[in-house]
Amino acid sequence: MTSQTSELHCNTFNSSHVQFSPDSDCATHFGYAKIGSLRSERHPCAPQSTLHEPLQHDSATRYPPTRASGPVAMMKDKADYSLYLVTDSTKPILGDRDLVHVVEQALLGGVTLVQYRDKTSDTGALISTARAIHEKCKAHNIPLLVNDRVDVALAVGCEGVHIGQDDMSVSSARQLLGPDKIIGATVSSVEEARIAVEQGADYLGIGTLYATQTKKNTKDIIGINGIRGILRYLDTADEASKKIKTVCIGGVNATNIPLIIHQLFAPTPSNRSPKTIDGVAVVSAIIASPDPKSSSQTLLNLVHSPPPPFKSPSALPTFWLENDTEEITHVLRTALAATKAVKSKTPLTHNMTNLVVQNFAANIALALGASPIMANYGPEATDLANLPGTAAALVINMGSVNPDGLANYTQAIRAYNAAGRPIIFDPVGAAATHVRRTAVSHLLAAGYFDLIKGNEREILQVARATGFAVTDADETSRVQRGVDSGAPLFSLREKAHVVSMLARRERNVVLMTGAVDVISDGDRTYSISNGHAYLGLVTGSGCTLGTTLSAYLAAYPKDKLLAGVAGLLHFEVAAQRAAAREDVRGPGSFVPAFIDEVFRIGEEVGEGKMDWEGVARVECVKGVEEGAVLRLE
Fold first, then answer.
1. Where in the sequence is the domain holding 197, given as residue range(s)?
2. Considering the domain boundaries, does residue 595 fall inside one?
3. 157, 392, 457, 525: which has the fewest Cβ within 10 Å?
4. Structure pTM?
5. 300 and 351 in one domain?
6. How many CB atoms lie within 10 A of CB 170?
7. 137 is annotated as an active-site residue
8. How far apart are CA 626 and CA 604, in angstroms?
9. Residue 430 maps to a domain
10. Active-site pick, 10, 137, 248, 543
């Protein structure tokens, strides 16, 4: 028991990683999605390893030849969208350079599809430039599409067009171009996607994800959840919708593309391999680059790289043992190993938390055997996340919310994600105010969290921010009085449903605290009934649980769920032992005794004088039904 008081037209895209796994079974299990599907000879700039083959396509090779022996009729079913270059001829992006030369360098670097976009030149100039670009594309066996101008595409004889919502319809373009040309459409809603598929589009440019510098008058910024909704519709509609290719568009850059690819692959208990994007589009990352070839090579390598550090799979498989007794024995044995790891590794726990609890949290970290640093300044995070030979984790505690704080949190999140170090997110008071609800959405968009902990209303707000709706919810589930947890809303199985659904979709660990804590990684769900009521009478006890969890996830990364269970047991059994002491008369005398017992448990486990049998109240929660509380909108 714990508590707290206290259109693909002109968007800017840059490059970074995408996450993949060597084989489809493993990829499905760990939640990785592969984008792109080239089906001809391997490009020399591509990685030479053949480990990371696409999940949803045949086994033919993925990189086209750099030179064709002659003119090639590019069939649209052979097009690859993984690295989609959209040109920009404007002075701020292109400068004084020659666009055709820039595109040629990008082709040498490995871009897989080119869209020529120019909204200002006259028709003659458009045709002349498009022909020159087309010659370069044909030499590399890469399709060229023209933005909007079907007449220019016909005059040039290129492979297709891209149609925006303000341009002619897809069906009209199809009538003019015929069945063998590639036609793409910009969409920002389910209805626009439905119409585009119905009219025969070959791919969708879905967005706008974020506001961009190249398109400042964007009217449809739909974010991650908007794109998720469109992908989910396509995945559940007719066969044409399931098969249509998709590209993520709008504000993608080097700092956010790993997270975007991760977030847009959003499994549920009933669908572990949902439809995801087939590529990312890039403008300024290549067009504005002083070395377009090198930038394209870098992007191509990153697109086809293994999973980024923040989403490396656990070293241990995640499965239930058939017998609950054996499962719990395994959990408790692992918990002991995790406690010993904390004592032996002295992990760094970097707390970005409110001033009220910093002293308490630092003392808990020391009692655990961890090394605390209470540093709220974002620029420090890169050095702390990359300390050599040191296990480290970050705690983002949303106790104090202001613009400067959010900026610091964001910088730290990105640093720890890049270093592959775990992050614990404690959305304190997430449902209490509009400011806090907005902050939760901002932080979830900023990076990946390995573990999210909160009470019922806080976790529900996180679920809403990730695209879930709460079934039959009334205002009592939306409103939070300060940071108090409030009256219970759900049964144990309903809580298990919420945390397992959210954990599966976000592919992390979710902990809902209360009289009975429920924790899940989307596959395995446990309830823990240890703790003491005094924890609810002490300011910041829930915040110090976040510190505890950070130490455990840093020291025992092999299984983050069981590391979380171990941290909970250490924390809550210490509370029970402290409350039972004769020198404890209430919450005031409880706090120092609690710190002592946190220390003593670590010492006893390290010396082999204690185990969790007969002490830990852990149970498996199996057979949780989908749709009991949360549903996807």
1. 24-308
2. no
3. 157
4. 0.80
5. no
6. 21
7. no
8. 41
9. yes
10. 543
